[in-house]
Amino acid sequence: MEKISELGFWQRMAAERGLIILFFSSAGCHSCRIWRGLLREYEMTREDLRVWEVDAGIDMGLTQEFEVYHLPALFLFKDGRYLRPLQVEARPQALHRLVESVKDLPGEEQP
């Protein structure tokens, strides 16, 4: 899992290939700690997926751009293109099923 900031975010995203889960979190968020562990484990099981973590309290511009009001928040990208938000229970099997079911769908309009 890589921590990223809003500086150069879109340029870097445009150059990426494969799947990226953009994970908005905060240091004091208990649910975020649970998701962080789950996402780290999930990332290790997939060669085609990376997780980028954004600290919502520090990178507020990106947090507002994605209209994040509740933490944690997850968004899926493929080959640098926005696909959709991911809303799923914090279980590895549920996350995997959701990612697999939406990864080849056309993207939605970005928030």
Question: How would you characterize the overall build of this protein?
Answer:
With 111 residues, the protein is an alpha/beta fold. The chain has one domain: Glutaredoxin, CATH 3.40.30. The chain is 36% helix and 25% strand. The protein has a 5-stranded mixed beta sheet. The model has no long low-confidence stretch (mean pLDDT 94).
Mass-distribution shape? globular
Distance between the termini: 23 Å
Look at the structure and give the mean pLDDT.
94
Helix-strand pattern: EHEHEHEEH
Lateral arrangement of strands in the main beta sheet? 1-3-2-4-5
Q: Strand portion, in percent?
A: 25-35%
The CATH topology is: Glutaredoxin
Give the CATH superfamily: Glutaredoxin
Major pleated sheet:
5 strands, mixed
Which structural class do the helices and strands define?
alpha/beta
Please give the radius of gyration in angstroms.
Answer: 13 Å
Which percent bin holds the helix content? Answer: 25-40%
Poorly predicted runs: none
In CATH, the architecture is 3-Layer(aba) Sandwich
Instruction: Figure out the total of helices.
Output: 4
Number of domains: 1
Features:
111 residues; alpha/beta; Glutaredoxin; 4 helices; globular; Thioredoxin-like_sf; Thioredoxin family protein
Q: Summed up, what is this model?
A:
The protein is α/β, with parallel strands linked by helices and 111 residues long. It is 36% helix and 25% strand. It has a single domain (2-102), classed as 3-Layer(aba) Sandwich (Glutaredoxin), CATH 3.40.30.
